[in-house]
Design brief:
The structure holds two protein chains of two kinds.
Chain A (H helix, E strand, L loop, with lengths): L1 H11 L2 H19 L5 H15 L2 H26 L8 H47 L6 H17 L6 H15 L2 E2 L6 E2 L13 H19 L20 H23 L4 H16 L2 H6 L5 H17 L1 H7 L5 H12 L8 H4 L1 H29 L7 H20 L3 H18 L5 H24 L3 H5 L1 H34 L1
Antiparallel strand pairs in A: 1-2
Chain B lengths: L2 H23 L17 H18 L23 H21 L1 H15 L5 H22 L13
Helix pairs in contact in B: 1-2, 3-4, 4-5
Chain lengths: 505, 160
Amino acid sequence: MFEGILIGLSTAFSLSNLLMVIGGCLVGTFIGMLPGLGPMSIIAIMIPVAISIGDPSAALILLAGVYYGAIFGGSTSSILINAPGVASTVATSFDGYPLARQGKAGKALTVAAISSFAGGTIGAILLMIFAPMLASVALLFHSAEYFALMVVGLSAIAAFAGSGQVGKAILMTLTGLMMATVGEGALFNMPRFTMGVMDLQSGFGFITLAMAMFALPEALFLVLDPSRSNTGDAGSKIKDLRITKDEAKQITPVIGRQSIQGFLIGVLPGAGATIASFLGYAVERNIASKEEQEKFGKGSVKGLAAPESANNAACTGSFVPLLTLGIPGSGTTAILLGALIALNVSPGPRLMTTQPEIFWAVIISMYVGNVILLILNLPLIPYIAKVLAVPRNYLIPFILFFTMMGAYIGQNNATELLILVGLGVIATVLRFANYPLAPLLIGFILGSMLEDNFARSMQLARGFGFITERPMTMGLLLLAVALVLLPGIRARRARRKSAFIADGD
Amino acid sequence: MSLERAIALLFLALFILYGYTAFFTMDASLAPFMRRNPIWPSTFPKGISVLGILASLYVLLGFESAGEQKKSEIDYRNLGQYKIGQALILLALMIAYALLLRPAGFLLSTVLFLVLSAWVLGERRIFMLLIVSFIATGVVWYLVQQVLGIFLRPLPFFLG
């Protein structure tokens, strides 16, 4: 492990990689503050830049910096003007915005900066301890287990979608898998399901799909509903940066608890920073004393520290399944996975042994990223807030333009833009009906790997025998079935129970 | 029928079509030696189509536990109250951009796109708008062409 840390240190502290972290954090923070551009869209926009760097560790370091920066920028805008640019910072605005309105914006930003710094750092330490443990199990994995593991990951994503959403999430995942089969697969040299369209010969473009699923619907929503991009008065003064000793004493245990809880939630596929921040807020509220509970929602420092440390720790946590198992836990890490594959790195159990410098450089750059974010946030806050003043009339055209550039640069093909618009309209309609879109993208990204591993194990076992011959495969597949069925059974039982009570009355 | 279930019906049709192709038509073009392989190009799609039909039926028939239904940010039953016209014009502009990008060149079509879409959204300071668009287009072109080294035809086709 220490050898690995040394490799990581030497990679991450090279001048160019340090610049990558700084640049990534800056870009992420600035764009993350704009309402409507979450980490997912920002990373999708940055992918062409990252891929063209060529060096996978530098690219991953850049994207990780963008990721942290985006989460961080989102909290800035939710505190200052109650406009969370990112879903995971919605909980931050519950207590951050009231604090800002009381004229304590400086204090709120300081609390947020310190909590996210602590959350990110503790998360990185936990990642360092746990990731190698997970990876050491990894050599037992063959293609059959990979196949089963991906099935588990996909069903976990669907199962954690929330009540009333599981069926739709599964449907979306399957649609993603279906879209992944379009074009030529790696194992068969024949185009499938192209409907005679030449441009589909190589399948759907991943960046095109990512843009169409996230950035485009968000931009269209901003157009449809002008009140969504209301940025309010961004010019209010920012003062009173210091926090008192008493407040520091209050938030310390909150930060400790929420960093660990947030990390663990982040590790689960499908959960991620949004759930971690809401859960962190709810837990801290429940265990606070009576009079402190009253303060929640009216400007409690605890209520601000909890979601901030939880969401940053969860961001770090979501790198565990990505780097050690090759399973993206969230839409954002799914996009990162796509970028990695484009860079010819296959994340997974063997990453730590075959390319340790990538693995450790990312972990080390997490520390560096956190420190840089702290440095950025404290003195630059007053200036950073100015970006929020970009008027909507300029913001939306530029979002659309960058979306199209991202898709065009990837394929150098104008038909790709038409596909982008078409899929974007479909995605918008799906969002109207509350269909979750992240499972579709995750399914699409995992789809080809899933099929390749499936095909390989079928060829090795000359049929479906691998399912019964390998206990681990069997166990994982059963786990996947249980994950999909459990929420439905639990809901049915709850309904039957309530129906029974109603009958008894 | 709610939009949610109407969409599920469309997905059902899509998966049936997909399954029909996988089960009945696509194996015909398979070379004889590939038929000895335990896995065919259609094996995986067959599985997906069956699962997809089941999942879309599940949503379509309303087995989904009602739970706490999340409310969409936009009420689709009442699209008239939103700026639907603006959204449609912007989509049309994007399509026009896609068709113009090659023949008209990057610089011209991008400036046109940025200016027109901001105009549609209600921006009227045309001078300011032109300056911002020109600078942004120039910077992006420089980044893509010179820094990233990806070819973007800058000028209309008859100029080179």
